[in-house]
Known about the structure:
Layout: E1 4-6, E2 21-23, E3 26-27, E4 49-50, H1 54-62, E5 71-73, H2 83-87, H3 89-99, E6 103-108, H4 117-120, E7 124-130, H5 136-142, H6 149-161, E8 165-173, H7 182-192, E9 196-201, H8 206-215, H9 217-230, E10 232-234, E11 237-239, H10 242-258, E12 262-265
Parallel strand pairs: 2-5, 5-6, 6-7, 7-8, 8-9, 9-12
Antiparallel strand pairs: 1-2, 3-4, 10-11
Bound molecules: iron/sulfur cluster.
Iron/sulfur cluster binds at residues 29, 31-33, 36, 38, 77-78, 109.
Amino acid sequence: MxxxxxxxPWKSKFCTCPTKYSFSPYTGCSHGCLYCYASSYxxxxxxxxxxxxxxxxxxxxxxxxxKRIYVSIANSSDPYPPLEHKLRLTRDCLKLLVANNCKFLLxxxxxxxxxxxxxxxxxxxxxxxxxxxxxxxxxxxxxxxAPLPQKRLAAMENLIKHNIQVAMRIDPIIPGINDSEIGDLxxxxxxIGVKHIVSSTYKARFDSxxxxxxxxxxxxxxxKDLYFRQGEKISNSYYLPTSIRFKLMKKVKxxxxxxxxxFACCREGFIELNTPKSCDGSHLITINL
Length: 289
Ligand code: SF4
């Protein structure tokens, strides 16, 4: 296979994802999120490029994959970068996936996904939106080139109205930046019909830490000791101390319970907090509204 691969969590001891395929129509991502970890291992990451001969390679891979396993799109980029307005590559890929009876999870920060609701409404799919804050100013700083939170909320609502399953990621939670608005965020998405929440704390790598520090120097100065002295290094990331991560994830879970949402944390090691469904929202793929 060339463009669809088995998802590799890099031996993460905390990953609870089911077996899935991974597929990215684009290499790199121009949303430019300060906290992005993919920029630490993909060169020129914030310059987004379409993959060469993508549709031909996808068609070839679709003949070989096990159709019982779903495809996660995308894990190290966004399938709806601004380039997609013009290129419509992701849209063509989705049509091919649907024509080949593939199940898929579509992970995005962009309301452009609404454009493809005609294709998605015929698909076995769950769309997982990432939304870290409702505060426009904070969003402009954290995710400078991604669509604003209100646009994402409107897109979620629109897809749900078209009977398309929607999950949401509050990922990452960064103490001092977005941890105080967890309840408001979950209330807003529960009201529009989102069913499942995935959440995770910020795991620092040096390049994302430096970007965060430049924009939020006071907050990051306060977090420095927690990440680099009191916390632990797992693989190539620096984690907050376990007790703080647990408290944050418990807070998200309790809000989810309050608003009738299922919950799972991502790569935190607190399986006991997870509602017993898939962590990433893939359990919603085959459910019809
Ligand atoms: S949308 Fe995802 S892949 Fe793109 S820059 Fe933001 S965190 Fe990275």
